Amino acid sequence: MIRSTAWPTDASGVDTARLEEAAGRLGSSPADRLAFTRWVATTTAPLTAGTAGPVFATLAAVAAVDVALARTVEPHLDALGILAQAGVDVPEGSTWGVFAAEAPGLRLEVDDAGVLTGTKPWCSLASVLSHALVTAHRGDERQLFAVDLRHEGVTTHDEAWVARGMPDVPSGPVDFDGVPAEAVGAPGWYLDRPGFAWGGIGVAACWWGGAVGLARVLRAHVVSRPDAELLRVALGAVVADLADAEDAIAGAAAAIDAERDEDWALVAQTVRSRVRRAVDDVRTRVVGALGPAPLTSDPAIAARVADLELYVLQDHGDRDLARIGRMVVERGGVAW
Q1: Strand, coil or helix: 53
Q2: pTM for the full model?
Q3: How would you classify the pairing of strands 141-148 and 154-156?
């Protein structure tokens, strides 16, 4: 990977070569992926001020090898960071997801005894994880809870996941029927803390790493066809796009680790939108330059393209750009 000068100095301590080598040797079973996730967590501190550089570099390195694997690692590391910030102990050997999405017609409620009832959408890997952090409604407020997914009142719906991207990371809804849960922070704490924005930048680091993996495919084709001028043009454009995205992530990591006082919601959304644009451009360039052959004959390349295309849709495109515009008008936050 290109290494931006904006990265915090301690990010250089991440052994990305070792991470990529381990990810490349990994089997495809859920058990293998979860074992790898737990191993990464033993070598990576939770995301807090002071660790953002290494965490983002770790996520990018994993995604450069396997986008779906990064989609497994990222929420586990995010959950560990949230629990560390809240001062909640983590059960030994546990694997975690973070289920905070909302969808029309689906609602998860919590009663005064801390019991969950209802349905939560977009619950990635719920059928194989041991635990999750879930947001639930308590009246007009939302609060975060830790829940044991092995409770008999938990029903997962992997069959609802029919995506061609990330088919091995099912993200269907989950029903909770009288499931006890432990509060993590007060109502509103999960969304209001700076760490919420930092976690969103961690997702963007995964997008960027996935695009790096595509760029490596293009580079290999350029090396094999040194006289193909159009391939060199495509590679040059991809290098520029990846450098811009990396600078966005690295700059945010440096600000987090320096404990700067920022409008973190604005920073995170701007970073995510910059990375989304770059990743979309990289994917389009690489697919256009290589043509249909790799997408129809190489399962690894076809999977990477489909996985990455789906993953970046966690950014909401024009809706999120409108959100940036609204925040700037209401709160300022830009230098010009």
Answers
A1: helix
A2: 0.95
A3: unpaired
Report the sign of the C-alpha dihedral through residues 34, 103, 150, 114, in that order. Answer: positive
Indicate if the alpha-carbon torsion angle 258, 70, 308, 193 is positive or negative. negative
The number of beta carbons lying within 10 Å of the beta carbon of residue 288 is 10
Q: What is the dihedral of CA 182, 78, 134, 127, to 10 degrees?
A: -110
* Phi, psi (deg, nearest 5) at residue 125: 65, 20
Q: What contacts 44, CB < 8 A, 6 or more positions away?
A: 51, 54, 55, 58, 77
- Give CA–CA dist 174/105, Å, rounded: 13
Distance CA 256, CA 252 (A): 6
What is each CA distance from 297 to 26, 218, 269, in whole angstroms?
A: 22, 16, 36
Cβ pair 289, 192 in contact under 8 A:
no
DSSP 8-class letter at 160: G
What are the mean pLDDT values of the chain's consecutive 10-residue runs (336 residues total)? 59 81 89 95 90 95 96 96 94 96 96 97 98 96 97 98 96 98 96 95 98 96 92 96 96 95 96 98 96 94 96 95 95 77
| Residue 298 to residue 290: CA distance in whole angstroms | 12
Tokens 């995170």: give the residue.
Answer: 268
Strand-pair category, 174-183 with 115-120: antiparallel
β-strand partners of 143 = 136
H-only helix segments in the chain = 16-24, 30-43, 52-65, 67-86, 189-192, 194-224, 229-257, 264-290, 293-297, 299-311, 318-331
Report the b/e string of 219-251 with b at 16+ CB within 10 A.
eebbeeeeeeeebeebbebbeebbeebbbbbbe
